[in-house]
Amino acid sequence: QVQLVESGGGSVQAGGSLRLSCTASGRTSTTYTMAWFRQAPRKGREFVAGIWWGGERTNYADSVKGRFTISRDNAKNTVYLQMNNLKSEDTAVYYCAADSVLRSGIVTTEVHYADWGQGTQVTVSS
Questions:
Q1: Which of 19, 40, 92, 116 has the most CB atoms around its CB within 10 Å?
Q2: Quick check: 4 and 113 in contact, CB under 8 A?
Q3: Which residues, other chains included, contact 13 with Cβ-Cβ below 8 Å and sequence gap of 6+?
Q4: Higher confidence at residue 53 or residue 76?
């Protein structure tokens, strides 16, 4: 099992930036993909971005392409989500997730992620 702790959420005005961090502990040696999901009020959880733990492969939701960047620091067991040009529709609770199954690509459905963080709130005001 992998334990995930997110940080970096907060309130920002539209057009601003935030950087989220997710630090993993536990059985990180079997974690292949790390991802960020988000859940806005009265909506389901949606995929935001994912990164292959041992390589450079990344995947983004169309709604955040060009504005968000996912990266990782393996030495720190930490994944980051740099969010620029934030919009009010980015307001949500952001969750970090880990997939410990070796797959051919980065999956975007939450059912494939076994381990989750507690979430961090991001609020963007217009």
A1: 92
A2: no
A3: 124, 125, 126
A4: 76
Per-residue pLDDT tens digits for 73-112: 988 999 999 999 999 999 999 999 999 888 888 999 999 9
- CB-based burial of residue 111 (10 Å sphere; 0-12 exposed, 13-18 middle, 19+ buried)? exposed
Length of the chain counted residue by residue? 126
Give the Å distances, CA to CA, from 48 to 27, 36, 64: 24, 5, 7
What would the two tokens of residue 73 be?
């620091």
Beta strands in the chain (DSSP E): 2-7, 10-13, 18-26, 33-39, 45-52, 58-60, 68-73, 78-83, 92-99, 115-116, 120-125
Q: Residue 110: exposed, middle, or buried by beta-carbon count in 10 A (0-12, 13-18, 19+)?
A: middle
Q: What is the DSSP string of 53-79?
A: TTSS-EEE-TTTTTTEEEEEEGGGTEE
Q: Which amino acid is at 45?
A: R
Q: Which amino acid is at 41?
A: P
